[in-house]
Prior knowledge:
The structure is a single chain. By secondary structure, the protein is an alpha/beta fold. It has one domain (4-242): Metallo-dependent phosphatases (Purple Acid Phosphatase, chain A, domain 2), CATH 3.60.21.10. Helix content is 32%, strand content 22%. The chain is built from eight helices and twelve strands. It has helices at residues 15-26, 46-55, 64-69, 80-92, 95-103, 131-140, 220-229, 235-242; strands at 4-8, 32-35, 59-60, 107-109, 113-116, 145-147, 155-160, 163-166, 173-175, 181-185, 199-205, 210-216. Strands 3-2-1-11-12-9 form a six-stranded mixed β-sheet. It has a six-stranded mixed β-sheet with strand order 4-5-6-10-7-8, with helices on one face. A hairpin with a 3-residue loop joins strand 4 and strand 5 (113-116). The model has no long low-confidence stretch (mean pLDDT 97). The protein binds zinc ion. Zinc ion (ZN) binds next to loops.
Amino acid sequence: MMPRIGLLSDIHGNLPALDAVLAALAKETIDRIVCCGDIVGYGPWPGEVIARLRVADALCVQGNHDATTAGRLPLDYFNVAARAVIEWTRTVLPSNQVAYLRDLPQTLVEDQFVVVHGSLRGPLWEYMRDAFVAGETFSLLDRPFGLFGHSHVQGGFVDLDGRVIPLDRTTGSVDLLPAGRYLINPGSVGQPRDGDPRAAYAIIDFAERKVFFKRVPYDIQATMQGILHAGLPPQFAERLQRGR
Ligand code: ZN
């Protein structure tokens, strides 16, 4: 049983952001950390991030960046800049960490929830950005909760008797109605794209039936420096400041 989980996604090799989130979670009572994929890509500390997740014994699924880094998807699905980081990541990861990424499941099923990176229909690639696409995943979901990432946008959807409605995360927490089924995206730890540059994560309390959407500041300058120092495309540093 996992009554209360810390939910992370899209860390993308951003160690200062992950450490800020782990420090915040250390002050909470959490049964397990669950990660919706894209551990690597874009950021300069892929090996350190993998090491942190292994020490934390996080339950992780594979994202499209993880799969491609481990050679399970062709590089040409990515634009030139993203591909450059994946190729660099392959050169810095030891083989046991590449194997860790390679062996991650694409779908993870627990008693109360299913975890995927993108969607149930397309675990590695499909973006669930609107109620219509979310509805396709609800039709495949055989648990009360689906946990996902990929869009780097914090939030999610509720299915109430076949009506799919976006969650309102503006108050920071959402009550989980017993009659509802939920798709929950914690947002991106390492490269937020919803206009808030702080690291995003979530806490789901299945016993209290609440999801808490959280943000925590981190040393953005340190990650920008790390990206430039590693010789990675500067646009991935610049966008961290804007959270876009
Ligand atoms: Zn991602």
